């Protein structure tokens, strides 16, 4: 019988960074609460320091939240054995280097992932080479993951028009992260029409038709 659990549930997730010992001051706070039930390709963008990589780390279990939970295929990612977490969700950082995590509990206290291949793939600012058909190769790879029933996140920090063209072509919905808060957009036109997105992208929006 097929697992009918949503691919990803981010349940009232909250991560807070502070400084100071006696008089703690909040330096950054990320809050997220959303569910993705079916395979899709999700575009993620936002200013540097807005919380994009932190969100990916929380989803893959390499960073622990202050509160809330992340469920991948019904499994609480932070209760899954460390060496099996990337069988549920895997984080590729920039040049496709897989992000690792710190062990905080003995493995015998944790549960099995129950799958042998990642169901959630998170690409964190992949380096797109504009030569030799590399972009087409990567887009085909994202589509293959989607067609195989996977959930794909593509996080870009656009600094040239081609990055927006990539996101419009490949992504089916979008998340904009700004100062630790997430805004969900159903399509590219809604994303580009958002005033915070336009302010973030600056002159790049002039080239968007």
Could you please describe the fold and organization of this structure?
This protein is α/β, with parallel strands linked by helices. The chain has one domain (38-66, 79-207): P-loop containing nucleotide triphosphate hydrolases (Rossmann fold), CATH 3.40.50. Helix content is 22%, strand content 32%. It has 5 helices and 11 strands; from the N terminus they run βββαβββββαβαββαα. The protein has helices at residues 52-60, 134-147, 161-170, 188-193, 195-201; strands spanning 8-19, 25-36, 40-45, 67-72, 75-76, 89-93, 97-98, 120-124, 151-155, 173-178, 181-185. The chain has a 7-stranded mixed sheet with strand order 7-6-8-9-3-10-11, sandwiched between helices. Strand 8 (120-124), helix 2 and strand 9 form a beta-alpha-beta unit. The chain is globular, with a radius of gyration of 17 Å. The protein starts with 7 loop residues before the first strand and ends in an 8-residue tail after the last helix.
CATH top level assignment: Alpha Beta
CA-based shape: globular
| Average pLDDT taken over every residue | 86
Poorly predicted runs? none
Proportion of residues in extended strands: 25-35%
Secondary-structure arrangement, i.e. CATH architecture: 3-Layer(aba) Sandwich
Helix content: 10-25%
Order of helices and strands: EEEHEEEEEHEHEEHH
Major beta sheet, strand line-up: 7-6-8-9-3-10-11
Instruction: Specify Rg, calculated over alpha carbons.
Output: 17 Å
What distance lies between the first and last C-alpha atoms, to the nearest angstrom?
A: 46 Å
């Amino acid at each position: 019988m097929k697992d009918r659990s949503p691919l990803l549930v981010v349940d009232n997730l909250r991560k807070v960074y502070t400084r100071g010992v006696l008089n703690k001051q909040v330096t950054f706070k990320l809050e997220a609460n959303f569910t993705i039930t079916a395979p899709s390709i999700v575009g993620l963008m936002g200013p540097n320091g807005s919380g994009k990589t932190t969100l990916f780390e929380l989803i893959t279990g390499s960073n622990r939240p202050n509160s809330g939970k992340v469920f991948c295929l019904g499994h609480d990612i932070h209760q899954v054995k460390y060496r099996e977490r990337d069988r549920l969700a895997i984080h590729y950082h920039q040049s496709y280097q897989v992000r690792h995590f710190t062990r905080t509990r003995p493995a015998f206290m944790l549960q099995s992932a129950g799958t042998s291949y990642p169901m959630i793939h998170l690409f964190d600012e992949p380096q797109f080479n504009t030569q030799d058909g590399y972009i087409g190769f990567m887009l085909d790879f994202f589509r293959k993951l989607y067609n195989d029933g996977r959930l794909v996140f593509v996080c870009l920090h656009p600094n040239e028009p081609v990055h927006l063209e990539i996101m419009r072509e490949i992504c089916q919905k979008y998340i904009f992260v700004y100062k630790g808060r997430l805004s969900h957009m159903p399509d590219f036109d809604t994303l580009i029409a958002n005033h915070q997105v336009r302010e973030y992208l600056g002159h790049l929006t002039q080239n968007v038709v």
